Amino acid sequence: MVSQPDVPEPAHAELDSMLSRKFGREVANYFSGSPLNRVSFLRTNHEFITKALTHPSTSFLLFNNLAPLVKDPANLAYAKHEDLRELIGENPFEKSEEELIKEYNSSVTLPLVLFLGLDERKKEGFEHGIYKGQPFFAVDVTPKGTVEKQASAVVESMKGKGLEFMEGRMHMSLNAPEAAVYAQARALLDWNARNPFCGGCGQPTLSINAGMKRTCPPTDYASLPNAQGATTTEATPRPRADCATRKGISNLCFPRTDPTVIMAVVSHDAKRVLLGRSKRFPPHWYSTLAGFCEPAESVEEAVRREVWEESGVHLGRVVIHSTQPWPYPANLMIGAIGQALPDGEKIHLEHDPELEDAKWVGVDEIKEALRVGTSGLGEDAGPEYKEGGLRLPPQTAIANQLLRAVVGGFLESGEVSKI
Amino acid sequence: MVSQPDVPEPAHAELDSMLSRKFGREVANYFSGSPLNRVSFLRTNHEFITKALTHPSTSFLLFNNLAPLVKDPANLAYAKHEDLRELIGENPFEKSEEELIKEYNSSVTLPLVLFLGLDERKKEGFEHGIYKGQPFFAVDVTPKGTVEKQASAVVESMKGKGLEFMEGRMHMSLNAPEAAVYAQARALLDWNARNPFCGGCGQPTLSINAGMKRTCPPTDYASLPNAQGATTTEATPRPRADCATRKGISNLCFPRTDPTVIMAVVSHDAKRVLLGRSKRFPPHWYSTLAGFCEPAESVEEAVRREVWEESGVHLGRVVIHSTQPWPYPANLMIGAIGQALPDGEKIHLEHDPELEDAKWVGVDEIKEALRVGTSGLGEDAGPEYKEGGLRLPPQTAIANQLLRAVVGGFLESGEVSKI
């Protein structure tokens, strides 16, 4: 069993500020707390991105079918520019985006090269005007399309160095700063891979802005309208059908993030907490309730709706506690604390029968479970756990942090802070 | 000029609960506070949705090219089932979703019929088991495709009754409860209209789940792969290309909501507030800073990144205040309060030159502007406004509510509540 990774250091805790005096330290959740400055405004800067890509200090995080290259379960591994030259060329950012769009050929595979940001802790080396730090990129080395052979060579070369592409659905073993870097890369590679076609017109799209945008080009040099199976190339580009995303700014061209709510619900007397379990959980395992925000719903409304739909409990006041990026594939978990109405505590599981069980649990039992009964879903609880006791998610899950907050002072003093 | 609408009543304020004693009343922002229970788990219930559609109490909100049918700028108008029979048929939910998918024909236009929820304030009349209330639907009556004639007839018939489809980019004049109903319908109609094709495979998709899902059918009775211009129908359905969205659950099939951050930033000494203006604002108009969350970024990190990119200011602690749905087209505005680091208050506009200006403004000036200088973007300020004074967004904007919160006690006592 891999040891549980740390959660990130609370960023900018600023204990002497008015906000932190009132609200306590900021809780930084796992997958947040990246050391990289995304300098998002430089992604379209031709000179910057070219210099960053080819700088000797630059590190490349590699993914094969969304599995990241690692040294071991706690540490990512990185490639250098020379390891990738055969796959991505000397400089995939050599041409301007206007040129790339004009020359678009849907039958040619362009491996995704994603700019992640600058690690400003390492100010020696790369600089561009006032911006300094070690550049980080991610590259999709999945063997596919017209670069299958070159990508396979990169994969084999990395394996030859004793590195591996870490398989598995979720990677919660990485150290906290690298988990955040991995999360950013995974979310964006996944979004690009899931959206090869335009939802507005059905035609294949082209990745631009160093991986942060997909555009629907007006012409195509490939001879077939659909990239699937198309291999020949025309001498002049074929005009494509009109597309609404080419007029003004369309959200379809930008990465998608799905807001979800996850909430620790306390009883009206603030002595118990509502927990639920789904059928796929191991025995005795419970967690906080959660669900997707719906269109045109505030977070507070989504919290009340989901709690009522899943458990029958009616909530009053809802307060948002902290948030956690969740790159499987693209969720933003918005963590909240809600309190039941005096006459709204009755549990009813039959509205939306998603949960196998829901129950009110006393504070002492939750405190004990946070001490001895936490683990990842597929892992064993700690050595002090006694069979039959309550089991809860690990510290890397926001559910755990929300429960810590409510039993760590709030239920007694009203203080919402981390124990 | 239309009078400024109310903001919604704070829902579930529960002033006697521990959460509300500590955090104050919950702020309900405009476009939230819907009176409808979405009963989301009943959207796929064949019997329920059929009964709800055809019940005599049921109200239909109509949209023509996203313009809602209204009595006047403050009040929506509704149609009845008999007004729509020629367009949507007696019951578009007559067949099961399995049947609709099997019979899918991309050359036939099916007008979107969207289930919004039950108005539980009206418990007399419609009921389905324990669920009672007046059913609300929205219908897209935009004249297009194979139902152009029938849709035009509905549009003309409504105009004949003296009603109108309210044009314009934003509708902030509606009364608060109806604004929330409108927002839900608009967000979903827009998502369906923007996504006629599958981003995973490029083939046209079918709306199911009473408007809350689009699925990629495995076969098509139309003779052409692309709905554009396709009119003939095959005797047997044509198998379509494989699609990743048909395996397991894909977020591409569900409505998209883009999380955005909007933040009132206070100085380290808590005596000033950071405001910015874009070129498109009228003279003297400022607002809080805002921007989109990026993939794998917490809300707190997005707040710090956006403030630094747009203004150069470095923030410490960030606290989330309240949220607002923003259906233009699909944003969830997450409102926060952040405090500048002691040495981080210097303004620098050149990182991401989105703002024309940013400045620190004293509390008294903001209080005065909230009293006399608020208006919608295209509207005049109130009668007490003196030319040259600071102008700010109206109460219906979360920017206004965040500013009210920080000058309404927080900057003096640390209390984050609404003035």
UniProtKB/TrEMBL annotation, chains A, B:
<dbReference type="GO" id="GO:0005777">
    <property type="term" value="C:peroxisome"/>
</dbReference>
<dbReference type="InterPro" id="IPR015375">
    <property type="entry name" value="NADH_PPase-like_N"/>
</dbReference>
<dbReference type="Pfam" id="PF09297">
    <property type="entry name" value="Zn_ribbon_NUD"/>
</dbReference>
<keyword id="KW-0378">Hydrolase</keyword>
<dbReference type="InterPro" id="IPR049734">
    <property type="entry name" value="NudC-like_C"/>
</dbReference>
<dbReference type="InterPro" id="IPR050241">
    <property type="entry name" value="NAD-cap_RNA_hydrolase_NudC"/>
</dbReference>
<dbReference type="InterPro" id="IPR015797">
    <property type="entry name" value="NUDIX_hydrolase-like_dom_sf"/>
</dbReference>
<dbReference type="GO" id="GO:0019677">
    <property type="term" value="P:NAD+ catabolic process"/>
</dbReference>
<dbReference type="GO" id="GO:0005829">
    <property type="term" value="C:cytosol"/>
</dbReference>
<dbReference type="GO" id="GO:0006742">
    <property type="term" value="P:NADP+ catabolic process"/>
</dbReference>
<keyword id="KW-0520">NAD</keyword>
<keyword id="KW-0460">Magnesium</keyword>
<keyword id="KW-0479">Metal-binding</keyword>
<comment type="similarity">
    <text>Belongs to the Nudix hydrolase family. NudC subfamily.</text>
</comment>
<feature type="domain" description="Nudix hydrolase">
    <location>
        <begin position="255"/>
        <end position="383"/>
    </location>
</feature>
<dbReference type="Pfam" id="PF09296">
    <property type="entry name" value="NUDIX-like"/>
</dbReference>
<dbReference type="GO" id="GO:0035529">
    <property type="term" value="F:NADH pyrophosphatase activity"/>
</dbReference>
<protein>
    <recommendedName>
        <fullName>NAD(+) diphosphatase</fullName>
        <ecNumber>3.6.1.22</ecNumber>
    </recommendedName>
</protein>
<dbReference type="GO" id="GO:0046872">
    <property type="term" value="F:metal ion binding"/>
</dbReference>
<dbReference type="InterPro" id="IPR015376">
    <property type="entry name" value="Znr_NADH_PPase"/>
</dbReference>
<dbReference type="Pfam" id="PF00293">
    <property type="entry name" value="NUDIX"/>
</dbReference>
<dbReference type="InterPro" id="IPR020084">
    <property type="entry name" value="NUDIX_hydrolase_CS"/>
</dbReference>
<dbReference type="InterPro" id="IPR000086">
    <property type="entry name" value="NUDIX_hydrolase_dom"/>
</dbReference>
